[in-house]
Predict the structure.
Amino acid sequence: MDEQTLAEVERAGTQFNAVTAMTVERANALTAESIGRRESDEPPRRLEGIPFAIKDVIDLVGYPTTMGSNVRSDDPVTASATVVERLEAAGAIPVAKTNCQEYSYGILGDESAFGRVINPVDPALCTAGSSSGSAALVATGAVPLALGTDTAGSVRVPAACQGAIGFKPTFGVVPVDGVFPLSPAFDTVGLFAADLGVLTTAFNVITGEDSGKASGRGAEPGLTGSGARTIDVSLFADDDARASDLLMPMPDLTVTSANGRVIGKLLDDLAPIYDFIRLYEAYEVHTDLYAEHSADYQPGVAKKIEAGRDLGETEYRKQLEALADLRKRSLTVFGGADFLLTPAIDGPVIRWDEIDSGSAAKFMRYSMPFNVLGWPALTIPLPSAGAAEVPQAVQLVGRPGNDRELLAFASRLG
């Protein structure tokens, strides 16, 4: 990795408090390997030389995984997460570990042992979380690609608040080995990118679909997303022009709002299932650590962990059954539609000084449901009318397992 790139990452990391560690030694070693391949006339790999950042709940060999917490070991880990190994095997080069909400537990991004990340669009605006630092490095252009995790919107919501592309794949298609969990029933490794083609290539790599051949920017070969499609925009208000403006250039697209009542009811019905399972699982994950180090957790995170203390296993099993049933019957929501288009968050990006007890729910309103259902979802930033404008974004949602079709369709939007 050239010194200029590393210097830019470090500069952005410092300016926006987005980096917990520069991974220079690893970057230099892999850069030397990449140069050696080129000098030996080996064909370039899919992500050859592309720098990427790693949310600091994801393991990178030779570096500690801090979790954004004072409750941690500072010993270097001995093996990288599978997703990191796959990106490196495709030629990508890790340049930084990124700041995040402590243990990924919080959508606002307001609590980290390293202090909160600064929104590069406007320091007064909330970054959202939990993958705040990864979003910031992509939004500033310091890196073209970054890893995050998404349990209720922790990739897509920071992407929306900071002006990046954010993708949560179908639940279970991306390995989570070497990734510290929050709630295993919903946890997904996700991607931030500045370019949808790079994101699509990286997704193919981390799901094990890497053909070994390099690809340029733009949509992946063979994934055009062409042909007649139907998209449901029921969740946009009648006076909200974001959906119509985005979809206008697609004359072969049928736009419907026929399923609004069904979709709205589903969003309301699944929240209690998410709340119980997430509280129970997060407490189970942290039981031993919290018993020994409760005073060292960030106050809001500690409060969330405490909230899961007395939830019973019998009810947890019932909620898992309800979740499985919900995932089976929820596909009727699509009706005749191929995709759903929704707002990314409920309302505008809020300022740090405007956060209140309802802010987290507004951030998760349209993201969390698709963690519960396990469907792939992509946050797409919209062009700003002016430099001072608050970021706006929409969310494109596909059927489970149709990740590549979703990404291909997204490449036609705008």
